[in-house]
């Protein structure tokens, strides 16, 4: 594993971050994430409509199951995309990969809007929808993990939480834009107008968004942490092979498992509220489509300042405690939240959604900045891409389908709540036992990132704190040497 040479630290060794440039990086990477979730938003809010367009022979909740199965099956490609783009990101740099993924996402989303309906070309329409979703899955396999890595490596250590939360602000903004556009079109065109042709409009919007994101990302600088690794390899005047995927699975088993669990409880909650809930309110509970869409839209708008607050609190009090608060909330309030959704009262339905949103906000404010801290710089992109996307594919992307399936088989509309409670319990046990606080610390394998020269001088006087990860690096190198023998 690549580590910083052991010598006396100097103030010039520290990475001094220009916070304004860090915010620019958050905006450029967040826009790509916004576009990804713009697609998720329009697909989720159009789930009932897409079911009628591409699966007209199915009826009721079964039609919804098929629609979300198409949504979920695209996640098969995410680990493959993570494998490919993760390797490229650790070898060629974070910036280059992020410019590729945003173009692929925009193109595949545009293609969905061009597919003829089932009535026009039969089953071919369903297969074309699946093909476009697979391309989306492949490109997003490198998108979110790359964005997390880029922001974490571009932020000062003491502000990593609040800047990382900006990635989820992008998520919510993209989802709000997508769902808001669908809500507006549904109000103007009506349900039948959306089925006839209106559903295509949101997918066409993806193309200009992708071009804007591409332009912004091409004007970003490569992260300082990645440049440090390249310079370190050149300074050592030796050919040190880059750790392989085999090395990652061999030496980072604990971190990979922990990452998978964190991503699971984060994304199951995320997809339950943002992807599945519009259809649950409409198809399962019988709420008017436009009313349910508007309620969730309002909840997402309220989540934006809460997510930023949680990011700030994670910097101040620690990412572990904020995440644990979210898990406790999920365990205690998932069932009451779904009971409130049953009530035929707009206020109680809103409160039920808000309870779930508060739990999710704790995760959204901490996870984007927390996951990159699990891995060393030279393996970070690959390790994150693979573990994140495997977990999202198995747990996150299947959440709407599993929720629909459980209700269809049991005829109990509280089953999604029981699922959330189980996820919260497992997540709480694993996370509490295995995760160690990383807020305010330098990234593993990197020198401290500070905002001023005064901070750099303070870090020099406390080298053990500055390079807290060196003991881990030494143990990894020892294991590697023993394995080579």
UniProtKB/TrEMBL annotation:
Transmembrane segments: 64-85, 97-115, 197-216, 256-273, 293-314, 321-340, 346-363, 384-407, 413-435
Family indicated by similarity: Belongs to the major facilitator superfamily. Metabolite:H+ Symporter (MHS) family (TC 2.A.1.6) family.
UniProt xrefs under SUPFAM superfamilies: MFS general substrate transporter
Domain of life: Bacteria
Role according to the record: May be a proton symporter involved in the uptake of osmolytes such as proline and glycine betaine.
GO molecular function: symporter activity
Every Major facilitator superfamily (MFS) profile domain range: 25-439
Organism of this sequence: Listeria kieliensis
Protein name per Swiss-Prot or TrEMBL: Putative proline/betaine transporter
Chief place where the protein resides: membrane
A UniProt-annotated Pfam family: Sugar_tr
UniProt membrane topology term: Multi-pass membrane protein
Stored Gene3D superfamilies: MFS general substrate transporter like domains
InterPro entries given in the database record: H+-coupled_symporters, MFS_dom, MFS_sugar_transport-like, MFS_trans_sf, Sugar_transporter_CS
Subcellular location, record wording: Cell membrane
A GO CC term attached to the entry: plasma membrane
Keywords attached to this entry: Cell membrane, Membrane, Symport, Transmembrane, Transmembrane helix, Transport
């Amino acid at each position: 594993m690549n580590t910083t040479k052991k010598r006396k630290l100097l103030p010039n060794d520290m990475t001094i971050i220009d916070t304004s440039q860090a915010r620019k990086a958050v905006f450029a990477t967040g826009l790509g994430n916004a576009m990804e979730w713009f697609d998720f938003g329009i697909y989720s809010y159009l789930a009932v409509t897409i079911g009628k367009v591409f699966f007209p022979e199915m009826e009721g909740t079964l039609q919804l199951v098929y629609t979300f199965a198409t949504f979920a099956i695209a996640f098969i490609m995410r680990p493959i995309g993570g494998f490919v783009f993760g390797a490229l990101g650790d070898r060629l740099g974070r910036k280059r990969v992020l410019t590729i993924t945003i173009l692929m996402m925009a193109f595949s989303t545009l293609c969905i809007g061009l597919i003829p309906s089932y009535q026009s070309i039969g089953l071919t329409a369903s297969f074309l929808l699946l093909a476009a979703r697979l391309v989306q899955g492949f490109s997003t396999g490198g998108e979110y993990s790359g964005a997390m890595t880029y922001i974490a490596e571009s932020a000062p250590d003491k502000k990593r939480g609040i800047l990382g939360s900006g990635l989820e602000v992008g998520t919510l903004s993209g989802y709000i834009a997508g769902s808001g556009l669908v809500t507006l079109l549904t109000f103007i065109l009506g349900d039948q107008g959306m089925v006839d042709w209106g559903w295509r409009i949101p997918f066409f919007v993806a193309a200009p968004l992708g071009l804007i994101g591409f332009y912004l990302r091409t004007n970003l600088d490569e992260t300082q942490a990645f440049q440090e690794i390249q310079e370190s390899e050149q300074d050592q005047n030796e050919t040190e092979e880059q750790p392989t995927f085999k090395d990652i699975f061999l030496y980072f088993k604990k971190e990979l498992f922990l990452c998978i669990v964190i991503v699971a409880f984060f994304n199951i909650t995320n997809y339950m509220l943002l992807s599945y809930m519009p259809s649950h309110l409409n198809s399962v509970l019988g709420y008017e489509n436009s009313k349910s869409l508007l309620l969730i839209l309002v909840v997402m708008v309220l989540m934006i300042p809460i997510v930023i607050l949680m990011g700030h609190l994670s910097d101040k009090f620690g990412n572990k405690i904020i995440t644990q608060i979210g898990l406790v909330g999920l365990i205690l309030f998932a069932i009451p939240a779904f009971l409130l959704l049953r009530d035929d009262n707009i206020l109680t339905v809103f409160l039920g959604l808000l309870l779930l949103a508060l739990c999710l906000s704790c995760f959204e404010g901490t996870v984007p900045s927390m996951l990159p801290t699990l891995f060393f710089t030279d393996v970070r992109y690959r390790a994150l891409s693979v573990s994140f996307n495997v977990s999202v594919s198995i747990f996150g992307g299947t959440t709407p389908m599993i929720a629909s399936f459980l209700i269809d088989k049991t005829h109990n509309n509280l089953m999604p709540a029981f699922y959330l409670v189980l996820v919260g319990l497992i997540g709480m046990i694993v996370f509490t036992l295995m995760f160690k606080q990383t807020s305010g610390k330098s990234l593993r394998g990197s020198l401290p990132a500070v905002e001023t020269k005064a901070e750099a001088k303070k870090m020099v006087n406390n080298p053990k704190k500055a390079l807290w990860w060196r003991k881990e690096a030494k143990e990894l190198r020892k294991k590697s040497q023993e394995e080579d023998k």
